[in-house]
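User: hey, got a sec? need Mitogen-activated protein kinase folded
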Amino acid sequence: PGQHQPYFPSPAPGQAPGPAAAAPAQVQAAAAAAVKAHHHQHSQHPQQQLDIEPDRPIGYGAFGVVWSVTDPRDGKRVALKKMPNVFQNLVSCKRVFRELKMLCFFKHDNVLSALDILQPPHIDYFEEIYVVTELMQSDLHKIIVSPQPLSSDHVKVFLYQILRGLKYLHSAGILHRDIKPGNLLVNSNCVLKICDFGLARVEELDESRHMTQEVVTQYYRAPEILMGSRHYSNAIDIWSVGCIFAELLGRRILFQAQSPIQQLDLITDLLGTPSLEAMRTACEGAKAHILRGPHKQPSLPVLYTLSSQATHEAVHLLCRMLVFDPSKRISAKDALAHPYLDEGRLRYHTCMCKCCFSTSTGRVYTSDFEPITNPKFDDTFEKNLSSVRQVKEIIHQFILEQQKGNRVPLCINPQSAAFKSFISSTVAQPSEMPPSPLVWE
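Assistant: Yep! Here you go:
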């Protein structure tokens, strides 16, 4: 706001970045610490970096704040994610480091990845991490609730890209664990990218090891999680995609309940009462709740009433995703092979993707429309992390090692008009986070 230069010279040591008398005390303190760190950084590398100027906030999540900025190296608009309060405890440190390593690992057009990481200050002042990613104009939630018409082509190309990105993530052994419309970014060309890996983790192959149930926003939460399963697979992401598919067709949330129990009841209203085999991983309290209630017959034909776009092919694929038993739920790979997505694949690779290109003689298509990754994402580094200080030092060194080629490193400009607002931005309040899972016993 009011500042159009992409970057500014650093203030003289000790000089404040503009008047701060009206700012709250905690903001002034944060600003002072950030400026001190900034000055320390500049004194070490006076000619080796550029300042990036915060512009305006574009998103607030449970684990970070995202602002739009201009990259002073090339003038491109990008997104800057601030991960605050990183080193509060060991669990928080590990989660942030995992997300950071994932963002640097991903190489896929439908998965958001890190373009850069801002230079960290001296480790004594290192409290927050700033990640630069591609700037996307909207997300699927905003599109669904907007008055903008969504054609069948829109639905198919969006669903194709979601599953294309998810196939890649699952091939890396990663469960996203919070697939929802707001975490599916969309640009002005309808290219979609999966984002927000704050809850993501590597799939646990040992079924005796318990996994947290505080995952996935309730409306998109798979029945096995609602029923207290201590172990789950990447099938939970497919359930979420099924809910989003139905939402794209009907322009409303498919299972919109006030509580986890009501959520489960809405699911059984549609799918019918599950068999004991389908509930084998559920806790006893959840099974008892289902068995105490009236026996329900499936009402899947109601899916045809979502919209005129709910064709036989669409409903057939949707029913393969919304399966109570996770072992029988379709995989991302098999879903991509469904005939419903043939047109979405054709449209995406004809005029939207980066993997195919046009020549004077016609379109040259890639040999692999839905690539996977090899090797898988390796999370064994987490096993050796034992203290906050240790993780802080490792993350600090990791960021320094990520500087790509001979690109000039970036740091935040404390003279930016939005500087104080940016550094004092907070994450979403607890009320905005996914509700905790039901305690059945």
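Quick note: Residues 78 and 156 are 27 Å apart (CA to CA). Let me know if you need anything else on Mitogen-activated protein kinase.
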